Amino acid sequence: MEFLTYLSEFFNSGIILYAVSLILAYIILSVLSIRETIFYMRKNSFADYRNIMTSPLTPPVSLIAPAYNEGATIIENIRSLLSLYYADFEIIIVNDGSTDDTLKKIIEEYSLVKVDFAVNEKLKTKSIKNIYKSTNPVFNKLTVVDKENGGKSDALNAGINVSKNDLIACCDVDSILEQDSLLKLVKPFLESSKVKTIAAGGVVRIANDCEIENGRIVKVNFPKKFFPRIQVLEYIRAFLLARMAWSRLNGVLIISGAFGMFEKDVVIKAGGYSDKTVGEDLELVVRMRKYMHDNGIKYRIVYIPDPLCWTESPTTIKILSRQRNRWTRGLIGTLFLHIRTLFNPKYKILGMVSFPYWLIYEWAAPIIEFFGILYFLFLAVFGFADWTFILLVFLAVYSFALLYSFTSIFIEEFSFHQYKSLKDIFKLSLVAFLEPLSFHFLTLIWAVKGNLDYLSGERKWGEMKREGFRDNR
Amino acid sequence: MRLNTVLYITIIINIIFGLLLFVIFIINRIIRESINLRRQNAINQLEPLINELIFTEDDDIYSWNQDELRLIDKLKDLIRNNKFYTKVLFDMLLQMHKSLGGNAGIELKQLYYDLNFDKISVEKLKKGPWYVKGKAIIELTQMEVTSAYDLICRFVDHPEEILRIEAQIAAIVLKKFQGLNFLDNTKRPIPEYQQINLLKILSEFEKEDLPDFSRWLESKNDYVIIFAVNMISHFEQISCAPKLIKLLTHKNETVRIAAVKALGNLYFTPASENFIEIYDKETQKVKIAILNALGKISTKNELDFLLRQLEKDDYEISIEAAKSIQSIQRNGVNTLESIYDKLNDSIKAIIKHTLDKRIS
C-alpha cells in the first residue's frame, strides 16, 4: 500500500513537472512568436514586391511539383502554377508513375512532346522514362518529367536533377499558391548577406469551402465541416505561434512539404530528399542544417507569416488518421536517423534546443499524455483516485490549451485577419473549446498508433485521397 | 506550496489571460470599426475640398488663387486641433499624390508644404522608432523635401536594414547621383534586395547622367564592388570593362563571378584571354560563369578551349561549354553537329539537349 502511495506521488509529480515544462516552453514560444510577427509586419510594410518582380537582379526559380494520380485536377493545378507572378521561373511537374490518366491529360492539354533532355543525375532516383516540353511557346515554362513510381521524395529528387536554377521551390501540386508567393518567399534569400539563407517557408492555410476561381482563392470562408475547422485552428497554432518563434531563434526544423523554397546546392550536398522516412520535409531540413554546421557555414532558415499556400485538409476520420499516423512515423524516423544530434553542442541551437524540443515535446508529449490518462484510469478503477487532483490537472491543462489557442487566434486577428466576420471568429473560438475535449483524444490515439506502426516496420506513405477543390467559376 | 495550490493558481492565471485576450479582441474590433467610420466621415468632408482644389481649371499651378486659398483655409480649419483629421488628410494627400501625376501632383505637393505636413514628417524622422522613421523618409522622398536631405543622410549607414535602404533610396531621389556618396564609406552589406531597390531608382534616371560606377571598384567593401559591377553591367558602361578585368583575381569568389558575368554582358571580347588564363585554378561556380560569358563574347579562337571543356566528365561544365559553342556566331551549331559522332554517349546527350530549342 505504501509502495503504491509512493508510486502515485512519483507519477503525479512527474506528470506535473512535464506539464509545467511544456507550458513554459509554449509560453516562451508564444512570446517569441508575437515579437517576430510584429517585427515582420513592420518590416514588411516597406516591401514593394513589384521591384522584385521586375528586376533583372532577381534570381530565377525552379518550382517542382510531384504528381501521383492527380488526373481529376492536374490541368487546373498546372494552370494555377503557370499564373504565378514571377519574372523568371520554370515549373517542373514530376509524374511519379501515376496509374491514372494524369500524364495523358497534361500531354494533350499543354501540347507536350518528348525532348532529348540530358539529366544531371546528382541525386539517385528511380528511372526517368521521358521528359516533355510544350510545342506551344506560351507554356515554355513547363517541363513534365515522367518517371517510375518511387514516392514523393524520389519524385522531388528527380525534379531537382532536372531543374536548371539555383533556387528551387517544392510544392504539392494540388495546393493553391498565392500568386505572389514566389516573390514573398524569395525575399529572405535576397536579404541575406553574411548569413546565408538556405531555406524558407510560409504559412499554409486550409482551403476547404473557400471560394476558388481560376485556381485562385478569391474569398476565404471558414470550413463547414468539423474536422477541417479543427485543422484551421491547428494550422494557425502551428504556423503563427510555433514556427514563427523557431524562425526568430533560427531553430526552424521543418519547412512544410506543401510549399517551401531551398538553395539547391545545399539540398544536393546534403543528399536531397530521403526515402528512409515518410517525413521527408522534416528530415531534409535537419540534414541541411547538419551539413551547414559540419562545414562551418553560417546559415539561417526563415519562416514568414504570410499565407502563401492553401491546402485541402482531410475531411474524414479515415484519411485524417492516415495523415497523422504518417506525420508521427515521419517524426520518429527523422529523430531516430539523427539521434546523435541530440544535445550535441556542435550543432548549437539545432542540437541543444530544436532537436530536444521535438523529441521531448512533439514526439513524447502524446505518448506521455496517453499513458498519463491510462494511469488516471487505473487509479480510478482501483479506487486510488484523488478526484480533486485529477480535476485540477484537467482544468489546468484544458485552460492552458484554450489560452494557447486564443493567443494564436489573437495573432491571426492582429496580423493577416483572414477571417473577417465575427461569426467565423466565434466559430473558431468554439472549436478551441471543443478540440481539447474531442479531437485531441483522436490525435493521441493516432500518434500512439503511429509509434506502434513505426516499430512494426510500416514505412509507406498511405493513400491521401482528397475531394479536390471545386472551382466556383 | 502544495501541488493543488499551484494548479489552482495556473487555472486562475489561464482564465484571467484568456478573458483579457477576449476583451482586447472585442475592443479591438469595436475600435477598428469605429475608426473606419470616423475615417470615412473625415474623408467625406475632406475629399470634395481637395478635389475642388486640384481639379479646378487654373493657369498657374505654382501659386494659389483666392478661391484656392479659401479652400485651403477650410482644410486648415477642419484639421486645427484635430489629430485624427490631420492624420486622415496627411494619408490622403500622400495616397493621392502617389496615384496622380501632372499638375494635380504638383498642387498636392504644394498643399503638403502649405499645411506644414513636411514638418510632421521631419518630426517623425527625428523622434520615432525605426519603422516610423522609415515611413517618414518615404514621405519626405515622395514629396521631394530636399531640405531634409542632410537629416536623411544620417541614416544611410544605419544598423537597421530597412531604415538604411529607405535612406539610401531617398538620398538618390533627392540629390540624384550625389546620393550615391554613401558607397564611399559604407562598411555594411548591400544584399541583393537592397541592390534591386537601388537599381529600380537608378533606372528612372537618364542613362547619360549616370555616374561612372568604376570609381567604386576598388572599394574595401566587397558588397560595394559587387553593386558597382552589377550597375556597370546593367547600364552597359562599356568604358569600365578594362577595370573589371582586374577583379578576375579578386579574393572574393562572388566578386569574381559578378565581374565575369558583367564582362560577358558587356560583350568585352578581350576578356576571353583572361578568362582562359584563370580558368583552371578557378572554383566550379566561376568556371561555369566563365563558360557562360564565353558563350556571349567568344570567337572561333576559343573554340578549342570550349571543345576541351565539352569533353570533360562533368555535366555542368560540359553542358555550359556546349551552350557556349552553340552560340559562337553561325558556326557553333555546325561545329557541334560535325563532332557529334565522335563523342561518347553522355556528351552526345548533352549536345542533343543543347540543340533542342524547346529545352533552353
Structure, briefly:
Chain A has helices spanning 2-44, 49-54, 74-82, 102-109, 151-162, 181-191, 226-248, 264-270, 280-294, 317-337, 348-381, 387-414, 422-434, 439-455, and strands at residues 61-67, 89-96, 112-114, 128-134, 142-147, 167-171, 176-177, 196-206, 211-213, 216-219, 259-263, 299-311.
Please provide a written account of the structure:
The complex is a heterodimer of chains A (473) and B (360). By secondary structure, chain A is an alpha/beta fold. Chain A is built from 14 helices and twelve strands. Chain B has 360 residues and is an all-alpha fold. At the A-B interface, helix 1, helix 2, helix 6 and helix 12 of A face helix 1, helix 6, helix 8, helix 10 and helix 11 of B.
Features:
heterodimer; A: 473 residues; alpha/beta; two-stranded antiparallel ribbon; 16% strand; B: 360 residues; mainly alpha; 70% helix
- What string, H for helix and E for strand, traces the elements of chain A in order? HHEHEHEEEHEEHEEEHEHHEHHHHH
Mean pLDDT of chain B: 92
The biggest sheet of chain B amounts to: none
Query: Helix/strand/pairing class of chain B, anyone?
Result: mainly alpha
Helix content range of chain A: 40-55%
Question: Layout of helices and strands, plus pairs?
Answer:
The complex is a heterodimer of chains A (473) and B (360).
Chain A: H1 2-44, H2 49-54, E1 61-67, H3 74-82, E2 89-96, H4 102-109, E3 112-114, E4 128-134, E5 142-147, H5 151-162, E6 167-171, E7 176-177, H6 181-191, E8 196-206, E9 211-213, E10 216-219, H7 226-248, E11 259-263, H8 264-270, H9 280-294, E12 299-311, H10 317-337, H11 348-381, H12 387-414, H13 422-434, H14 439-455
Parallel strand pairs in A: 1-2, 1-6, 2-5, 8-12
Antiparallel strand pairs in A: 3-4, 4-5, 6-11, 7-12, 8-11, 9-10
Helix pairs in contact in A: 1-7, 1-12, 7-12, 8-9, 9-10, 10-11, 10-14, 11-14, 12-13
Chain B: H1 3-55, H2 66-79, H3 83-99, H4 102-114, H5 117-127, H6 130-142, H7 149-153, H8 161-175, H9 182-185, H10 192-202, H11 222-234, H12 241-246, H13 253-265, H14 271-279, H15 284-297, H16 303-310, H17 315-326, H18 331-339, H19 345-355
